[in-house]
Write a structure and sequence with these properties.
The structure holds 2 protein chains of 2 kinds. By secondary structure, chain A is α+β, with helices and mostly antiparallel strands. Chain A has a single domain, classed as Jelly Rolls. Chain A is built from 4 helices and 6 strands. In chain A, strands 1, 2, 3, 4, 5 and 6 form a 6-stranded antiparallel beta sheet that branches. In chain A, strand 3 and strand 4 form a beta hairpin. Chain A is globular and about 45 Å long. Chain B has 2 domains: 153 residues, Jelly Rolls (Sandwich), CATH 2.60.120; 78 residues, Arc Repressor Mutant, subunit A (Orthogonal Bundle), CATH 1.10.10.10. In chain B, strand 4 and strand 5 form a beta hairpin. Helix content of chain B is 40%, strand content 22%. By secondary structure, chain B is an alpha+beta fold. Classes of the chains: A alpha+beta, B alpha+beta. The interface between A and B is large, with 43 and 42 residues.
Chain lengths: 162, 240
Amino acid sequence: MSQSCLDCARRSERVFCDLEPGALQEFDGIKSFQTYPRASVLFREGERANSVFLICKGRVRLTVCSESGRRMTLRTAPAGEVLGLSAVLSGGHYEVTAEVVEAAETAEIPRKELLNFLREHREVCMQVVNLLSEDLHVAYDRVRAVGLARTRHPQLHSAPAH
Amino acid sequence: MLSPYGLDIIESCLTCKMRAERLFCDLPTAALQSFESIKYATAYPKGAVLFVEGQAPRGIFVLCKGRIKLSICASDGKTLILKIAEPGEVLGLSAAVSGKAYELTAETIDPCQVNFVKREDFLRFLKEHSDACFKVAEQLSEKYNVACHEVRSLGLSHSAAEKLAKLLIEWSSKNGESLKQEPRLKLALTHEEIAQMIGTSRETVTRLFADLKKRQILQTKGSTLVIRNKAALRSLATTG
């Protein structure tokens, strides 16, 4: 099953997807379209970051885990978001585990192809910088919520902020 | 020759000896020349505040020398230190890019040299130099990694003892110390500041240090901390 970005009806509403024709065509060529049922895992915290996942449809929950196995939800990412961006760009490992909570359709781009794509398309690189800065803003909010709103004995499980 | 706050100011990025080792600074010559023309080299003493959480973003600050503590504040005045920035880091990045207020407060803990770039100049620079844009993306990714790490540490760690042990292990893993039988680290922060890093009180940190010394897990020699029992410390860091 293939899904072309060029035919996508949601394109204009999505920051990352709203690329100009040349870039979009190339992006379409490097991405692979996948579907995931509920409860499937896109990637796990600690795994080598090999691809980014653009969520075309559905919702994905991002969690972190302690050594003893206690899990905490960071947030739930809606459709339109790009997951794994920071991990892939820093050449490291996924910082979170991504679990599908609502059946998802994704466009996946492998690391090497993404880096080449960004180098060739300056405006997209700037777009990525904007996305990352937004991700960071959300992460800092989470730090604030978890780090400052606690009592001496913190709760084990926090409800997601949104 | 007199120098501000004892710092040997690096005047030009192009001749800077540290250029190759620093992620952001290792730009192609053309981009670096462009950067040279928009940066202002400034010196700050210890205890100076570069920017405050909530302030409108004036620009970015590239840390050349010294260290800066980055913190978040609650409305009741409670402070959380997110991290200690080292030379090579670009501060105020996400705020300058998005135009939103600075997320953190930046205060020097050493005399520092900082290269300031005005927001408009920086954004124009990024649009013109895709290498720099890429580096910024890398730096933002690093910061995101640190923030996730913090959330995990604060949200999932059980006790202050666990968090302190984790922090000491992290600090002792710099400069190849972790390979030693008894790693050493220099304590750059006060007990109060350490408390702010792990989200507890100064009294608790003092008590924990005393406890660790009594159990011979740590030993202090002036401002240097020696980890006598690595295994015990590691075990404390994972009891959550």
